[in-house]
């Protein structure tokens, strides 16, 4: 059995199928870990979503910001943006079932046997694995519950921007969600810089990539993540960025996790959009 982690697909169905063909992927034998953002901005989000759901237990998917945006738009279409490509999903006859499946995906997946942790975006420096798992479970419980729409109505926003164990209610849930699905930069004391989206070096001081913060409590983890198409390569040995900008005309990347060292496979992706968006 082979296990592959795959970066942000964002509706690029043809590229995903080409990548899986190159891997020789067999759903009855192999497993796929998706780093979130299955949908939006690309041309075939509905096909991607149906395909991944059809893989059943052969696939693990964590939630990305675009996935959550689809859930929010399913609750209130006024949330849709001009550049979104989600209408095909929202208008599909199986739309409710697709959204229900998506909102029940985890924010974090940890496999102690393989020794990897999968998230979409980042972790604040105050969180170790136990804290991150507990925080993820809090939001997952809300999203999978009957009153998920109430959270969708208040999910958006950049505040609070620093972790405090005493955070409660919507503030706590929003902060947790922002870390798992939007984080790129923060300050050494853990203040989130959510508006900074460019490559390292483009952000102002004292912000740094979340994984470069000294004394980060998750430093002992091997972390797989997407979300950051402009990041490029990193020298951090336990950090594995997977978003190589397929949507923007870059590549779609798979990382084989059950090999040592982990092996990358990539396919080129046609496109002409400017990189760096959410």
Coarse structural class: alpha/beta
Tally of discrete structural domains: 1
The CATH superfamily is: Metallo-dependent phosphatases
Q: Strand portion, in percent?
A: 5-15%
- Mean pLDDT over the residues: 95
Shape: globular
CATH C-level label: Alpha Beta
The strand line-up of the biggest sheet is 3-2-1-10-11
Which fold name fills CATH's third level, the topology? Answer: Purple Acid Phosphatase, chain A, domain 2
Give the SSE order as H and E letters. EHEHEHHHEEHHHEEEEEE
* C-alpha Rg (nearest Å): 17 Å
Q: Number of helix segments?
A: 8
Helix content: 25-40%
Number of strands: 11
- Pick out the low-confidence regions: none
What is the makeup of the main sheet? 5 strands, mixed
What is the straight-line distance between the termini?
A: 33 Å
CATH architecture annotation: 4-Layer Sandwich
Please characterize this protein's 3D structure.
The protein has one domain: 4-Layer Sandwich (Purple Acid Phosphatase, chain A, domain 2). The mean pLDDT is 95. Strand 4 and strand 5 (116-118) form a beta hairpin. The longest helix has 15 residues, at 129-143. The chain has helices at residues 13-23, 45-54, 65-75, 87-90, 95-103, 129-143, 148-152, 169-182; strands at 3-6, 31-34, 59-61, 109-111, 116-118, 185-186, 208-209, 223-225, 239-241, 251-256, 263-268. Helices cover 28% and strands 14% of the residues. It has a 5-stranded mixed beta sheet with strand order 3-2-1-10-11, with helices on one face. Strands 4-5-8-9 form a 4-stranded mixed beta sheet, with no helix packed on it.
């Amino acid at each position: 059995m082979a296990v592959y982690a795959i970066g942000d697909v964002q509706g690029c169905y043809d590229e995903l199928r080409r990548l899986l063909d190159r891997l020789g992927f067999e759903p009855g034998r192999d497993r796929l870990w998706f780093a979130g953002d299955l949908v939006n901005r690309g041309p075939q989000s509905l096909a991607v979503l149906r395909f991944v759901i059809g893989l059943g237990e052969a696939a693990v998917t964590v939630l990305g910001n675009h996935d959550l945006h689809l859930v929010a738009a399913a609750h209130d279409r006024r949330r849709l943006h001009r550049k979104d490509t989600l209408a095909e999903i929202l208008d599909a006859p199986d739309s409710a079932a697709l959204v229900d499946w998506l909102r029940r995906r985890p924010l974090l997946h940890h496999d102690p046997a393989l020794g990897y942790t999968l998230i979409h975006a980042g972790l604040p420096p105050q969180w170790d694995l136990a804290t991150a798992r507990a925080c993820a479970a809090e939001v997952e419980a809300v999203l999978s519950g009957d009153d998920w729409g109430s959270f969708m109505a208040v999910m958006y926003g950049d505040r609070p921007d620093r972790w405090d164990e005493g955070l409660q209610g919507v503030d706590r849930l929003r902060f947790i969600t922002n870390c798992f699905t939007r984080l790129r930069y923060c300050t050494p004391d853990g203040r989130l810089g959510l508006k900074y989206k460019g490559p390292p070096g483009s952000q102002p001081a004292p912000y740094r990539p979340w994984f470069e913060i000294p004394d980060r409590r998750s430093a002992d983890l091997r972390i797989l993540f997407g979300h950051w198409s402009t990041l490029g390569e990193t020298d951090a040995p336990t950090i594995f960025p997977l978003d190589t900008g397929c949507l923007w005309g870059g590549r779609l990347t798979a990382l084989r996790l059950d090999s040592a060292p982990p092996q990358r496979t990539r396919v080129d992706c046609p496109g002409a959009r400017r990189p760096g968006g959410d």
